[in-house]
């Protein structure tokens, strides 16, 4: 540092005067009355409107800030005039007080006082207004001007800029929490409670799914109300999905590097308010109305038999690394909320987003579990998909399946009963944990994705891995009482190519993201059918449509829980962008006009038929793994594998190069009983997958497997409105066109 004054600034200068309160507790209004603060209670955390002593209505405020020296509650009137009230009661690290007369709709935040010493991880700065981590509604958007940074962002010596405190007031630039009315007991709601084995998940973005829908009124498009509209729900019901998995709806902020490029965080994996529905998705207002609108959306989906699963981001926050803004947790207790390195000025980053929440800390664990229970009990949701769940399962450093987070979830009477989906990896050492999460948990199975993609693009050396993936991934999940539905099977997700792009591009085309096409994965496992990108070649386009049908059919006849991505059933494209996280526009929005085009319409018809087929046949929704053993005198097994010769596969066949695989699913050997205790039986199916670029002659297994078969699905056909029909005798030879899939039902 060049001077004593600068050195003092680095180690912690005294706070400036801009934005500090006057003797009356108001900024800029000497002589105004300040409301009283009664002791209140340390629980529940956050702001809760209730009746206080002597029947006086008001709001109780409680904030955990364990290492702080003082906490001020900041109330804002409609003109944004701030009133600061000291919370003097401290119970077990929780600062609390009851303010009479404060009612729902009141906007508020906190200022937290303490040491400024980034070298030891202390980053308290009372000049920065802080969002309540328990705020249940947020009013305003997050811009990131220099004033919202706790340090001097433009300090000449950038290598130490994060250690120089910025004393400018951030309140004019920061969204405020909103006090919300508790007025809903969900007595009229009926949760679908779809069993895992019967589930079909549909991943969608609240804004992107509805933004271009022509039958949804313009003011409702892109909102919770838009998703609750009959036109949106009708599509989901017709398709037959049982659950929507919503990309993040917790209040989130946009990253600075995106704002500077004129872009926004579209996906929302940058949470800052774990109790608040993202305000920008509300059609009814942001002064608490977003809470009721979200609840009405959940009710409407439940009434249609559709569960609501939230994609949640508890592994990191929008405050990023040491050069990031001070919005909430960093200013409340940086060392208490975040994992820090040995050099406490730096953050441990297992997420690739600059910081990692320190879930081992009891108050952080409480924040997460309180949030989860809130969304279940008060907002009506049915489950969660945990982004980078391995980061939550870390104890001190390593991923630990006996970690506090997983232990708390396992014993919680509310959370252990909802759907729990892990994205079973993070970016840290040892973070890849597919197949490792304990019972109660399901997992995104990326090994299923990779094997199916590789098979249909002709890149598998043999079919061993494909066999495991089609039959429920027993090599990953047949332990500890886990079931086939522990595998969430997917071929595409929000992250990566769409289904149409998977058969149209081999290379990513992310130039619009402004990062020189460096972002996004290089490992697409895609095949463009001979031409990169859109083409007018009718043969190439016909092949692409067939490949899309092959991939979609494989997904929906595989054992496990299938996950579709919104728009894939209609051939949505992102123009080859495999990382559209910042594309809030037509690149990412569902194009509903595709329903009127012959090719996409055929794919939608096939998807609808396949989902219905899955719902009708329990053999496609098994609740236990296949045994592969013969149970009857005729030698039939519940699962058998066949070569093109119509013979059961030998050990040698599994290791030989092959482009064709047949699997037989027996409907007479389904474990378990129905609700009345009767055995579960079903039709049997033969599924033939052929990925070679030339036709193949295939012998159909004869008795005892089947005397005859009926065609149910043939991906070589363009018309998919109805089943192809037609029968074959066992022992007949059928021709499988190049790159096609045939589903046959045993009829006798």
UniProtKB/TrEMBL annotation:
Q: Which family does it belong to?
A: Belongs to the glycosyl hydrolase 13 family.
Q: Does the keyword Hydrolase apply?
A: yes
Identify the domain of life: Bacteria
Residue stretches making up the Glycosyl hydrolase family 13 catalytic domain? 203-614
Q: Which gene encodes it?
A: glgX_3
Q: What is this protein called?
A: Glycogen operon protein GlgX
Q: Which GO terms describe its biological process?
A: glycogen catabolic process
Give one GO term, molecular function aspect: amylo-alpha-1,6-glucosidase activity
List the residue ranges of the region (Disordered).
1-39
Alphabetized, the UniProt keywords read: Glycosidase, Hydrolase
Q: EC number(s) on record?
A: 3.2.1.-
Q: Which InterPro entries match?
A: GH, GH13_cat_dom, GlgX_Isoamylase_N_E_set, Glyco_hydro_13_N, Glyco_hydro_b, Glycogen_debranch_GlgX, Ig-like_fold, Ig_E-set
Per its UniProt record, what SMART domains does this chain match? Answer: Aamy
- What species is given as this protein's source? Streptomyces hundungensis
């Amino acid at each position: 540092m060049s001077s004593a004054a600068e050195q003092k600034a680095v180690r912690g200068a005294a706070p400036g005067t801009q934005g500090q309160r006057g003797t009356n507790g108001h900024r800029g209004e000497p002589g105004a009355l300040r409301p009283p603060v009664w002791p209140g209670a340390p629980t529940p955390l956050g702001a809760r409107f209730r009746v206080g002593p002597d029947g006086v209505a008001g709001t109780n405020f409680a904030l955990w800030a364990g290492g702080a020296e003082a906490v001020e509650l900041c109330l804002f009137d409609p003109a944004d005039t701030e009133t600061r009230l000291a919370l003097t009661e401290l119970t077990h690290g929780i600062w609390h007080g009851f303010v009479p007369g404060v009612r729902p709709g009141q906007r508020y935040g906190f200022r937290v006082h303490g040491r400024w010493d980034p070298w030891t991880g202390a980053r308290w700065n009372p000049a920065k207004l802080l969002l309540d981590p328990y705020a249940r509604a947020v009013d305003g958007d997050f811009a990131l001007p220099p004033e919202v940074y706790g340090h001097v962002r433009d300090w000449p010596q950038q290598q130490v800029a994060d250690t120089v405190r910025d004393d400018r007031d951030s309140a004019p630039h920061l969204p405020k929490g909103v006090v919300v009315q508790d007025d809903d007991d969900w007595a009229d709601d009926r949760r679908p409670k779809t069993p895992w084995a019967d589930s079909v998940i549909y991943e969608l973005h609240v804004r992107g799914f509805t933004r271009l829908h022509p039958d949804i009124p313009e003011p409702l498009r892109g909102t919770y109300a838009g998703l609750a509209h009959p036109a949106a729900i009708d599509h989901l019901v017709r398709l037959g999905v049982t659950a929507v998995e919503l990309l993040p709806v917790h209040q989130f902020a946009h990253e600075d590097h995106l704002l500077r490029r004129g872009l926004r965080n579209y996906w929302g994996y940058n949470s800052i308010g774990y109790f608040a529905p993202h305000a920008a998705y509300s059609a009814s207002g942001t002064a608490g109305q977003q809470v009721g609108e979200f609840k009405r959306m959940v009710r409407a989906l439940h009434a249609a038999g559709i569960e609501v699963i939230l994609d949640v981001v508890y592994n990191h926050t929008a405050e990023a690394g040491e050069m990031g803004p001070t919005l909430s947790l960093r200013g409340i207790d940086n060392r208490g909320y975040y994992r820090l390195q040995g050099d406490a000025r730096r953050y441990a980053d297992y997420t690739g987003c600059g910081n990692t929440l320190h879930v081992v800390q009891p108050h952080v664990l409480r924040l997460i579990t309180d949030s989860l229970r809130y969304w279940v009990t008060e907002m009506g949701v049915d489950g969660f998909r945990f982004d980078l769940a391995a980061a939550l399962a870390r104890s001190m450093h390593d991923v630990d399946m006996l970690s506090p987070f997983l232990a708390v979830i396992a014993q919680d009477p509310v959370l252990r009963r909802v759907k729990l989906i892990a994205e079973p990896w993070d970016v840290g050492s040892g973070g890849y944990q597919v197949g490792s999460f304990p019972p109660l948990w399901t997992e995104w199975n990326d090994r299923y994705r990779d094997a199916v993609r590789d098979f249909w693009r002709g890149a598998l050396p043999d079919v061993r891995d494909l066999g495991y993936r089609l039959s429920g991934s027993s090599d990953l999940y047949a332990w500890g009482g886990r079931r086939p539905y522990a595998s969430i099977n997917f071929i595409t997700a929000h992250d990566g190519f769409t289904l149409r792009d998977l058969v149209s591009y081999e290379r990513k085309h992310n130039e619009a993201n402004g990062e020189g096409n460096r972002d996004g994965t290089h490992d697409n496992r895609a095949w463009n059918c001979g031409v990169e990108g859109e083409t007018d070649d009718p043969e190439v386009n016909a092949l692409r449509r067939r490949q899309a049908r092959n991939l979609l059919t494989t997904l929906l006849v595989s054992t496990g829980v299938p996950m579709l991505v919104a728009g894939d059933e209609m051939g949505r494209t992102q123009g080859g962008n495999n990382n559209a996280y910042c594309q809030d526009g037509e690149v990412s929005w569902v194009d509903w006009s595709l329903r009127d085009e012959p090719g996409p319409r055929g794919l939608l018809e096939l998807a609808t038929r396949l989902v219905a087929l899955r719902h009708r046949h329990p053999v496609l929704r098994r609740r236990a793994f296949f045994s592969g053993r013969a149970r009857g005198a005729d030698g039939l097994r519940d699962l058998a594998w066949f070569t093109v010769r119509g013979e059961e596969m030998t050990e040698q066949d599994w290791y030989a190069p092959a482009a064709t695989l047949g699997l037989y699913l027996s409907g007479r050997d389904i474990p378990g009983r129905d609700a009345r205790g009767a055995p579960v039986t079903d039709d049997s199916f033969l599924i033939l997958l052929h990925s070679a670029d030339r036709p193949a002659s295939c012998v159909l297994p004869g008795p005892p497997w089947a005397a005859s078969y009926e065609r149910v699905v043939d991906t070589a056909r363009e018309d998919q409105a109805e089943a192809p029909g037609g029968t074959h005798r066992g022992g007949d030879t059928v021709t499988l066109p190049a790159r096609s899939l045939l589903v046959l039902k045993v009829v006798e």
